[in-house]
Amino acid sequence: MLYLFHYFLKKKHNQQRKNLGTNSMSIGLSSIIYMLSAVCLAKMASSDVCMKLGVRTCITVTFLTTALYCVLVPQCSSVYMIFVLQILPGMATGILFSYLTSEATKYVPQESKSTALGFFQVVYALGMTLFPMICGNIVSHFSMLYAYLFLAVICLIASSISFIYCKSH
């Protein structure tokens, strides 16, 4: 694992990002691609393919795909490649939010489902708040590369937990 971190560190990610020529137009386009992917691929969660694969496989593979995204983005040498890669977290948002919301309330009695959903949203909001703060600290003390690798590791952990949880239920 340390070898992997050392290898990525050599890539000088911060300078690479500046060299890609990103500007506000590129960032906006990247966000649009992400959001369109999330919206368009959310339907995929209820597709025949996902139904055949099952919840466990879909959640696990989607977290793995997100980890892959976190490893590939720092390696990009082209803004256009980042645009293409934006489809991966968009897909993850569309599929994971559908499945995780469903799983969060799956075994909750009907009269408590709204409370369970509220709790799920609180946990989700905490993640949306804390992870950018943690990543910001990682970037300021180390580099953007380490922040991406941190997120990749979190995705791998989430994938493992999801696989084990869904197997036991």
What do these coordinates show?
By secondary structure, the chain is mostly helical. The chain has one domain: Growth Hormone, Chain: A. It has helices spanning 2-9, 13-19, 24-42, 48-53, 55-72, 79-85, 87-104, 113-141, 144-168. Helix 5 (55-72) runs antiparallel to helix 9 (144-168). The longest helix is centred in the C-terminal third of the chain and has 29 residues, at 113-141. The radius of gyration is 17 Å and the shape is globular. It starts with a helix and ends with a helix.
Give the structure's gist in a few sentences:
The chain is mainly alpha-helical.
Please name the defining characteristics of this protein.
transmembrane helix, 169 residues, 9 helices, globular
For the record, the count of structural domains works out to 1
β-sheet strand percentage? under 5%
Q: What is the CATH C-level name?
A: Mainly Alpha
Give the class from helix and strand content and strand pairing. Answer: mainly alpha
Average pLDDT works out at 82
- CA-based gyration radius: 17 Å
Second-tier CATH architecture: Up-down Bundle
CATH homologous superfamily?
Answer: MFS general substrate transporter like domains
Globally, the shape reads globular
Largest sheet data: none
**Count of DSSP-assigned helices:** 9
> What's the count of strands?
0
Q: Write the CATH fold name.
A: Growth Hormone, Chain: A
Helix content: over 70%
| First-residue to last-residue Cα separation | 31 Å
Order of helices and strands: HHHHHHHHH
Low-pLDDT windows of residues: 1-17
Membrane topology: Multi-pass membrane protein
GO molecular function, one term: transmembrane transporter activity
Protein name: MFS transporter
Pfam families: MFS_1
